[in-house]
């Protein structure tokens, strides 16, 4: 009897080792000879073969096991599903396969009451995060719960995925979550210090990129936690000086991504990427000013290594923007076809925020001909136009050239943007608060 038990235990041990190592042949052999293996679990954590395959990114084994299981939502000791473990470890192919196989994205573990979305955000796996969000848009969860509610799902301590991403210094995840409707000013209940917003948690984590993302999406520097602290106080207390400088309410207001504008959310992805970069560049220029007097220095812009030597004026196709006469035209207004640079487009959109008095949203109009803007697209070079359709949009040399402004053109840009944002910033701040 005792011998039988230990023999069985060693069988299981071999089986789980084979799953962990991704040894498909051995796994197949053992499952064939003993199908019940698939329902056994490890002694302490109660991990099934599916959990182990998912956590270790063993996609072939995972597929094989999934073929033989009725459903993929097995639970371990902490009620974690294989999908949660795949999201925790950033195993994107396993995340996708599990979702395909019908894994429920709205399961809560028993540790902190977290979903797979919390796991992806906490551990900073932006690809997994995106895959789960994409699934949430099409599954029954979206119908029963609503997508917006899912993006802002709270764990047992009242933390949304955005809170966790901010605390864990995950700027990429923050960006994706905000882009999908995460509430930038939501307060936690018990997570961190009670009443913390994502900005409080980013201040605590000391991640400048996170603070920058949140501010660009309209996070409120003056919102207080339950103890009355603003994010600035938190950054100071934690000795995150650069973050504190940006969070200081007396520092200049950052440009805010004009998310309430309907047409912005309908931008094609190329144009959106350009505008997002323009906004980040404008805010970085502003940050350099804020940090100039302090000992904190910002690293140079991330794209400074890609061809700063490019001489824009030597290119006959490029045209200077007729608004700022500083940047190259990268955005085309449709249907009229007028062109301007991304920075000016952005300033135009930020400037045209909805009017709270009349409660109507004035659609931004083309600054040249005042016609309505139906769409914003990326300017195409004339000779490249024909084969553009088939080309990878993101690898064109034009883009990197257009965006690699030298430091000299930054001056012009920041003053151009500055004049817009100075006029608009007070109003912007008010409206951000008023937003429903
Ligand atoms: Zn311009
Ligand atoms: Zn026009």
UniProtKB/TrEMBL annotation:
Enzyme Commission number, as recorded: 2.3.2.27
Region (Disordered): 386-436
Broad enzyme group: transferase
Database matches in Pfam families: Ank, Ank_2, RING_XB3-XBAT31
Domain RING-type: 321-370
Low complexity compositional bias, start-end: 404-419
Superkingdom field: Eukaryota
Listed name of the protein: RING-type E3 ubiquitin transferase
Reaction catalysis annotation: S-ubiquitinyl-[E2 ubiquitin-conjugating enzyme]-L-cysteine + [acceptor protein]-L-lysine = [E2 ubiquitin-conjugating enzyme]-L-cysteine + N(6)-ubiquitinyl-[acceptor protein]-L-lysine
Matches recorded under SMART domains: ANK
Entry-linked InterPro entries: Ankyrin_rpt, Ankyrin_rpt-contain_sf, RING_XB3-like, Znf_RING, Znf_RING/FYVE/PHD
Renumbered ranges of ANK repeats: 78-110, 112-144, 157-189, 194-226
């Amino acid at each position: 009897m005792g011998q039988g038990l230990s023999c069985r235990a060693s069988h299981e041990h071999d089986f789980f080792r084979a799953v962990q190592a991704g040894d498909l042949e051995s796994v197949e052999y053992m499952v064939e000879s003993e199908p019940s293996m698939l329902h056994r679990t490890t002694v302490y954590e109660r991990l099934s073969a599916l959990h182990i395959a998912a956590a270790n990114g063993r996609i072939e084994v995972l597929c094989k096991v999934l073929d033989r299981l009725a459903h993929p939502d097995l639970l371990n000791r902490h009620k974690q599903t294989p999908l949660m473990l795949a999201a925790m470890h950033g195993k994107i192919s396993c995340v996708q396969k599990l979702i395909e196989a019908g894994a429920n994205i709205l399961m809560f573990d028993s540790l902190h009451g977290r979903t797979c979305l919390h796991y992806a955000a906490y551990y900073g796996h932006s690809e997994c995060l995106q895959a789960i969000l994409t699934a949430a848009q099409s599954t029954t969860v979206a119908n029963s719960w609503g997508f917006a509610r899912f993006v802002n799902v709270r764990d047992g301590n009242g933390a949304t995925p955005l809170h966790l991403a901010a605390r864990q210094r995950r700027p990429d995840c923050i960006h994706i979550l905000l882009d999908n409707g995460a509430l930038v000013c939501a307060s936690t209940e018990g997570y961190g210090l009670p009443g913390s917003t994502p900005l409080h948690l980013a201040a605590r984590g000391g991640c400048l990129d996170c603070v920058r993302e949140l501010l660009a999406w309209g996070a409120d520097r003056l919102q207080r936690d339950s103890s009355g602290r603003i994010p600035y106080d938190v950054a100071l207390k934690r000795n995150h000086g650069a973050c504190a400088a940006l969070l200081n309410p007396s520092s200049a207001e950052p440009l805010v991504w004009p998310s309430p504008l309907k047409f912005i959310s309908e931008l094609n992805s190329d144009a959106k990427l350009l505008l997002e970069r323009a906004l980040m560049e404008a805010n970085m220029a502003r940050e350099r000013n804020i940090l100039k007097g302090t000992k904190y220095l910002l690293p140079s812009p991330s794209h400074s290594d890609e061809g700063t030597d490019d001489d824009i004026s030597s290119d006959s196709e490029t045209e200077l923007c007729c608004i700022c006469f500083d940047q190259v035209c990268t955005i085309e207004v449709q249907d009229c076809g007028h062109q301007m640079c991304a920075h000016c487009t952005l300033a135009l959109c930020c400037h045209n925020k909805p009017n709270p008095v009349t409660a109507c949203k004035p659609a931004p109009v083309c600054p040249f001909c005042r016609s309505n803007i139906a769409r914003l697209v990326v300017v195409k070079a004339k000779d490249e136009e024909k084969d553009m359709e088939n080309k990878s949009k993101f690898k064109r040399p034009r883009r990197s050239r257009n965006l690699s402004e030298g430091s000299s053109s930054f001056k012009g840009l920041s003053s151009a943007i500055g004049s817009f944002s100075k006029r608009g910033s007070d109003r912007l701040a008010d409206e951000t608060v008023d937003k429903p």
